Amino acid sequence: MSLFWVVVGQLAAIETMSTSKKMITREEWEKKLNDLKIRKEDMNKLVMNFLVTEGYVEAAEKFRMESGTEPDIDLATITDRMAVKKAVQCGNVEDAIEKVNDLNPEILDTNPQLFFHLQQQRLIELIRNGKVEEALEFAQEELAPRGEENQSFLEELERTVALLAFEDVSNCPVGELLDISQRLKTASEVNAAILTSQSHEKDPKLPSLLKMLIWAQNQLDEKALYPRINDLSNAMLEDPTT
Amino acid sequence: MPASASTNRPEDLIGRLKSSEGEAKLKALREVKNQIIGNRTKKLSYIKLGAVPTIVGILAGASESDVSLIVQSTAAIGSFACGVDAGVKAVLDSGAFPHLFRSLSNPDAKVVDAAARSLRMIYQSKLAPKYDFLQEKNMEFLLSLLNSENENVTGLGASIITHSCETTVEQKALCDAGVLHRIIYLLEGSLNQRDASLDSLATIVKNNSDVISKFVGLKGGTALSTITELIKDRNPRTRLLACICLIVTGNAFPCYLQDIGTKTKLILILVELLEEPDQVGDEAPFALANLIADKEDLQKLAFEVDAVDKLCNFLHKGPVQVKRLRGIFLALGELCSKMEICRSRFLSLQVLNVVTDALNHDSLDVRIAACICMRNVSRSVKNLSAGRFMNEMIVTSLVQLLNDPSTLVQVAALGAVSNIVVDFTSRKSIFIQCGGVKELIRLSKSMDTALRLNSLWALRNLMFLANKTCREDIFLELTSSMLASLIHDPEPLIQEQSLALARNFVDGCVDCIEHVLADNGVIINAVGKQLWSSFKSEVCIQGMYMLINVATGSEFHKEAVMHQVLAPEASDCSQSFVTKFLQNNDSRLRTAAVWCVVNLTYPDSPGGSNRIERLQNAGVISQIKKMVNDPCLDAKFRCSKPWKAYSEKGFACSSVASLSKGRTCLSAKWVVVI
C-alpha cells in the first residue's frame, strides 16, 4: 500500500513540474531587453527594404536623404514597377504589359504563367466592359494557343470564358474573377516577377521578422509567463497574467 | 484608312517596319515586340512572314545615338530567339550577331542591357554557334564581359560559358585564364549573378578532376562550403544549381561528397524541388538521377528518405509535363536499378500502370525513359518469377515499340523485353501470341548492331527455361540457317548472344538437340568453327556450354560433339580447342572445358571408354590430369573425379541463382537480366 502512495506522490510532482511555468515580471523582462544592442543602420536598412519592396518611392527617396541609408536598388526602377502595378490595378492590362516589356522583355518571355495570367486579366476586363465579341476573339486568338501548351491554363481559360455564359455574373460560380481581388492578385504577381528580375527579394523582410516574433512567443508560451506583445502595431509589452 | 483593328495585323506591321520612318517606324517596332513577347504562336507567324531580317536590318542601319530604335529592335530580336528554335535560326541567319556584340560597347546603359539580354537569349539555345575561347582574343573578350559592372553583361559571359564549354581542353583554358576566380567572386553578387555563375561553374568543372581540384582549393579551400550553403538558399533555382555543382564535384571526387548529412539533404532538396512549377521542377529529377546513378549507398539513402514514394506520388497526381515525366521515370529507373527493396516499394505503389501507359506516350524521350524504368524495375527476380510483368498490357505496348520509328526507342524497348521474358510461370506464350517473336526475329536481321544485339539478347532470355513447344516455335521462326549466320556475325557480342541462344535452346531437351544437328549440322558446325577460331572468352564460354548441353544427349549426340572437338580445323593447329581452353587463363573457360569432357566420357554410356581413348590421343586427358592443383576450386573439384557423373543425364544445374549473379553463372542454361 505504501508503494502505491509513493507512486501517486511522484506522479503529482511531475504534473506540477510540467504545469508550473517560470514567471518573468515586466521589470525583469524590460531589463533583459535593455541589455540587447541593435544597430541603428540595421533598423534603417529594414525600413528602406520595406519602402523599396512595397514601392513607396517618394518616401524611400526622403528616407535616403534624411537617414543616409542607401537603397539596394535604383529608386527609378520603383517608379516603373509601381506604374505597372497601378496599371493592372486599374484594369489597363495592355498598358501594363507594354510597360513590363520596356522594363525587361525577359520577364514575360520566360514566365509563361505570369504572361497567361496577364492575358487572362485582359480577357476579364473585356468581359467586364461588355465587349463580348472582342473578348471571344481575344480568347480564341491569344489565349487558346496558351491553353494548348498547358493543361492548367486551359482549365483557367475555360473558367474565365464561362463568365460569358451567365447573365448575372455577380452571382455566378466564377464571379470572383470579376472581383477587385483578382486584379490585386495579378498585380502582386507582376510586382513579384519584376522584383525577382531585379535580383530583389519579392517580399519585404519586416513581416518575416514579425512572423518570427510571433513564432518565438508561441514557443515561449509553453515554458514561461512573460510580458507578451499581443498588439503588433504598437508593440506594447503586456503584463503576464496567471 | 483601314480600320484600327487591322493596322496591327502582322502583315500591316511588317509593311510599316519597311516603309515608314522616324516615330512611326519606332511605334511599329514596339508593337511587334509587344505582340511577340511571351507568345510563341505570334513569334512563329512573324518569323514565317520574314519579320526577323527586316528588324535586324533596322538595327544594322541605326546610328549609335538612336537609342530607342536600337533598344526596341534588339529587344524584339531577343524575343524571337527566346524559346523558339526557328527564331534563333532566323536571327542568326540574318546576321544579327555582330550588331548585337557591337551594341555591348554603346555608351548608353540601356542599349548595353538590351544587347546583353538578347545575346543571352540566343546563347541559351542549342542552335547558337559555339564561342571559341581557345582563341586568345576571344578569351580576353569573355573576361571583359565577366569583369563588367553591368549585371546583364556578366550574365551574358556566364551564359556563353554554359553554352560553349564542352571539352576538357576548354575547361582547362577557362580555369587557367582565371575564370573560376571571377565566377566564385560573382557568387557573392546579386541573385541573378549568383544563378548564372553557378550554372557556368557546373559546366566548367563537370567530369574534369583537374579543374575540380583547383576549384575546391579556391578561396582558401572554402569554395565548396560556399556552394554547400547555397543548397539551402531561399531561391529554388539557386538551390537546384548549387545541388548540381555539388553533384558534379562528388561524381568526380566522392571524397568531397562523403558527409551523409549533405547527401541526404541533396536528395531531399531535389525531391522537394519537384514541387516547383517551372523549369526548376523540370530539371530537378534529372539532377537526382545523376546523383544516385550507379551508387548503391545513395540509392539506399534515397529509399530511406522515401524518395520512391515521393516520386511515385507525383505520377499519381495527374498529368505531368513531358520533360518532368521523363526525369521522374529516369530517377525512378536509377532507384530501381540495383536494390530489390526499391523495386518492391515501387511495385507496391501502383504506378506500374503509369509507366505502362507512358510506353505509348507521344514524346519519344518519354517512351525511352519509360522503357528504361520498366527494364530496371523488371530486374526483380522475385516479381519475374511471379510473372508480374507478363501481362497483355505491358507486352502489347512493348511489342508495339519494337516497331517504333526511332532506333533509340526500339533498343530501349528491347532492354525491357529482355527482362520480362525471363518468366518462370510458363506464361511466355503471351509474348508469342502478341507477335513478339516475329518482331524480335525481324530485328535480329537488322543492319543496326545495337538492334541485332539486343533482340538476340531478348530471344535468348525468352528461350531460357521455355517449354518445348515454345522453344520449337522460336527456332522454326528463326530457322537454322539464320541462327548459323548470326553465330558467324562479325560482332563478337552478337556471336556471344547467338551462341547463348543456341545453348538455352538445347538445354535439357533431346528433341531440341535433334534440331541443332539437322540440316547437315549447320548450327553445331558453326559453333565448332567459332570455338576453333575465336579469341574472345565470352564467345567461347557460350559455345562450350552449347556443346556441353548437346553432350548430355544420346550416343549420337555425344559423337557429334566429339566430331567438333577433334576435327582439326586448320592443318597447322592440331591441338583441340578443348585442350587449349583447359590451359586458358580464364577459369570459367577451364571449368567449361572440364564439364565438356565429363559429359562426353560419362561412364555408363556405351561409347564412353572409346571416347576417353580418343580424347587421350588428342592430349586432352593428359592436360586434365595436370590440372589437379588448379587454383580454381571449381575446376579442381571436377578434375579429381572427372569420370563420375553427377546426374543421370550428365551435368545440368539450376540457374535461378545465376539470375541474380548475372554473367557469373555456371549452368547449362544461361540468362542475364539487363
Automatic annotation (TrEMBL), chain A:
Domain of life, source organism: Eukaryota
Ranges of residues in domain CTLH: 77-134
Pfam families the UniProt entry points to: CTLH, LisH
UniProt feature coiled coil, ranges: none
Listed transmembrane segments: none
Annotated InterPro entries: CRA_dom, CTLH/CRA, CTLH_C, LisH, Ubq-SigPath_Reg
Protein name: CTLH domain-containing protein
Organism annotation: Protea cynaroides
From TrEMBL, chain B:
Keyword entries, A-Z: Cytoplasm, Nucleus, Repeat
Keyword Nucleus tagged: yes
SMART domains reported in the protein's UniProt record: ARM
Compartment annotation: Cytoplasm; Nucleus
Entry-linked Gene3D superfamilies: Leucine-rich Repeat Variant
Gene Ontology cellular component terms for the protein in this record: cytoplasm; GID complex; nucleus
Primary subcellular site in the record, as a coarse category: cytoplasm
Protein's GO biological process: proteasome-mediated ubiquitin-dependent protein catabolic process
One Pfam family matching this protein: Arm
Domain of life assignment: Eukaryota
Entry keyword annotation includes Cytoplasm: yes
Protein name in UniProt: Armadillo repeat-containing protein 8
Annotated source species: Protea cynaroides
